[in-house]
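Help needed: design a sequence for this.
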């Protein structure tokens, strides 16, 4: 990082050759939902970390990710033909395989070896839990860790993505900000079934809903603990004179999060737009068609929120009087989208005033800056796992539970470590 760059520039700029981009490129990143890339379907143009790429499946169904613009004279390969073991440009027929090798150049003279000297950008891909991941970094890709939200039976997993009209970091900072659950997401009536059902389910050990618990104690005690994978976050609320409402959530290097029953990543498209990839993980098979239908009530089929900056998020001031703090409807994603886009496409952090509530955010920024320096020094950053035996993540636990005051909330997460790393919360 140069002297002219603020720490916030370093954290938020993610294009090729930037310090923050170099860090993000050391880990597998979600590139697309598998449903966007059906077997036999068209190649998909995507932008990832500022790079224009095309995602496709070869004739064996394996995903490949190569540069969008043909190495010949730049035509868009997403219009290309999928045939002969690769993707063929429809301008002059150059054929690329998923490793970026140019296999054929039909217009060149017979016997030409020019194609052997052409190398199209190409990145390795793998598929897990309904997501196609890509590795845009140098050298061999690391292991993709067995996070609880991408492990386990397919029918228990629902992956989705949401467009965000802002830098990736400010939205992931929303995921590691436990106090806003008592405010932004709060509903005034306990029995209003038109509101978010999940807000009215009771956490483990509680006879009352999380909405009531969040409202009962608006200023949780917050503690953070640095871990090998990032930061473990404890938010501790008074549930009753004898009970504590404990939530354990997680920041995961370098742009991930783990919260009860869910987890995911905020992945830069470029520095002022990103996708939130979110994976729900049930303890039993999920009703996937219903979840998809519910999602489409508030989203376009191409994963954009219907409530957006352009329509002032359809805020309803009557709703604010009697039903919800924010007047932004029942869906938490809509609240969070407003909260993290409204600072602007790139939040001006030199003007913020971080407080006690921001302890996890401050810690995450600190560990990210340290990780960036490690990459700059030529080392692997934290949580880059090379040994397959170390990819089990049973100590990455997210939970919400009402526990007796006599229980030790700092150690309670250990009782939730289970062999398949999944925690019902
Ligand atoms: S521009 Fe692609 S083959 Fe010529
Ligand atoms: Fe939120």
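Sure. Designed sequence:
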């Amino acid at each position: 990082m140069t002297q002219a760059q603020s720490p916030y520039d370093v954290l938020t700029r993610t294009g090729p050759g930037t310090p923050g981009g170099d860090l993000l490129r050391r880990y597998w990143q979600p590139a697309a939902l598998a449903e966007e890339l059906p077997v036999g379907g068209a190649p998909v143009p995507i932008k990832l970390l500022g790079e224009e790429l095309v995602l496709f499946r070869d004739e064996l169904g394996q995903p490949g990710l190569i540069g969008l613009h043909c190495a010949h004279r730049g035509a868009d390969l997403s219009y290309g033909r999928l045939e002969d073991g690769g993707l063929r440009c429809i301008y002059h027929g150059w054929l690329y395989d998923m490793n970026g090798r140019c296999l054929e150049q039909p217009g060149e003279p017979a016997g030409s070896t020019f194609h052997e000297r052409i190398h199209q950008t190409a990145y390795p891909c793998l598929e897990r839990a309904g997501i196609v991941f890509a590795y845009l970094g140098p050298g061999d890709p690391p292991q993709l860790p067995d996070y609880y939200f991408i492990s386990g039976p397919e029918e228990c997993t629902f992956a989705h993505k949401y467009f965000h009209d802002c830098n990736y970091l400010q939205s992931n900072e929303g995921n590691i900000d436990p106090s806003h659950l008592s405010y932004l997401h709060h509903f005034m009536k306990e029995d209003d079934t038109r509101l978010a059902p999940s807000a009215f389910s009771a956490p483990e050990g509680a006879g009352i809903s999380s909405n009531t618990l969040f409202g009962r104690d608006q200023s949780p005690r917050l503690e953070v603990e640095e871990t090998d994978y990032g930061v473990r976050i404890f938010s501790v609320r008074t549930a009753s004179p004898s009970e504590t409402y404990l939530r354990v959530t997680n920041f995961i290097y370098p742009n991930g999060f783990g919260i009860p029953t869910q987890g995911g990543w905020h992945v830069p498209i470029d520095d002022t737009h990103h996708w939130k990839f979110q994976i729900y993980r049930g303890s039993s098979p999920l009703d996937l068609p219903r979840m998809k239908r519910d999602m489409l009530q508030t989203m376009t089929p191409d994963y954009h929120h219907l409530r957006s900056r352009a329509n002032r998020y359809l805020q309803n001031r009557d709703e604010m009087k009697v039903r919800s703090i924010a007047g932004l409807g029942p869906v938490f994603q809509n609240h969070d989208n407003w909260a993290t886009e409204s600072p602007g496409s790139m939040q001006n952090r030199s003007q913020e005033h971080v407080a006690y509530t921001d302890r996890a955010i401050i810690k995450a920024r600190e560990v990210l800056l340290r990780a960036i320096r490690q990459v700059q020094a030529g080392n692997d950053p934290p949580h880059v796992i090379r040994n397959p035996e170390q990819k089990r993540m049973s100590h990455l636990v997210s939970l919400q539970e009402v526990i007796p005051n006599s229980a030790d909330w700092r150690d309670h997460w250990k009782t939730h470590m289970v062999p398949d790393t999944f925690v019902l919360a």
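The chain has two domains: 28-134, 148-416.
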